[in-house]
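Appendix B, record 7
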Amino acid sequence: MGAGLIGTSIGMVLAAHGNEVSFSDSSPRSAELAHEIVSGFTPGINEKFDLLIAAVPTSKVPEVIINAFQQDLALNYMDVASVKTNCVAQIEAYSAELASAFCGSHPIAGREVSGPESAQADLFDGRPWIVTPTNATSESAREVISSVLKSVGAVEIVMSPQEHDAAMALISHSPQVLSSLMAGELMLHSPQVAALAGQGLRDVTRIAASESQLWVGILSANSAALRPVLSSIYQRLGDLITAIEGDLDHESITRFLEAGRAGRELIPGKHGGKRRYVVLPVLIADSPGQLKRLFNDAGDAQINIEDVSMEHSPGHPTGLVQLSVAPESASRLEEFLRERGWRIYPPRNPDNLI
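Structure tokens (predicted):
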């Protein structure tokens, strides 16, 4: 139920593992497109599914699952929404039988673009996927959901609904608010200023492109957990404003920035844990085939690229591709690419965690 980015991506992987997958969506176009992408099937009149996945906006999850249960559509039910507490409360209040057949879940994966056309079969590969069973959740519901997570290559993490919502308020919902806040600030200034944007502003505002109505539902549903986090951020921002007013308080400014550096290091790297990478900035021409040639040359060097970012100034015929690699591989890759004719700037200090 729900043929958007998440629902269609799940369906792609499940179908590839030999499962029969059918889509339903409030948009006939989305459902039709998802069926075409996944080669889904149309169920028979009395068809009963092993699992119904509610991949719909947060505010619609209880309604969708309760309606499906009333129609006896499935043996088990799960959702993929980013807020859990209210949903679980409504489902448990409706029926003990439904509460037994239901298990909440939330994949920590996504993109800033939506719709079935944005689906990716590897969207969940190696990504955390939180499962939020309650005392009412049956073992059969847990088993079928675990099998889904195994199929899509996700890493299962078990939390209570309350723990989940508190965590999401900090690591997902607050970043969305801050990204939208920064991007909205651009609207108060001349468009010529935004045209000067570098990679820092692009990074900060990337998720501000997310669908507004989707986030209205998320922020509203998780307001209780979100308010304390935003209040803390507000207080710390106020402290910084005070520190840069009048006689500059350099010590407070330093503490503010150092806390940010320390917090950044708490975020695990691609492979888990705190791994340091060297960033090699490679000058690249703005012409077809250049990225492909660069990646092919890096592949010929037999060196794994851990992360990639790009910077390009409007109106200029060149840009920078920044390749993040393990420190022990940086010199070898730099030498190899120089031999292939690439122009490489001095590597960044390898103290940044990716």
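Remarks on this record: DSSP finds 14 helices and nine strands in the chain. Residues 161-186 form the longest helix (26 residues).
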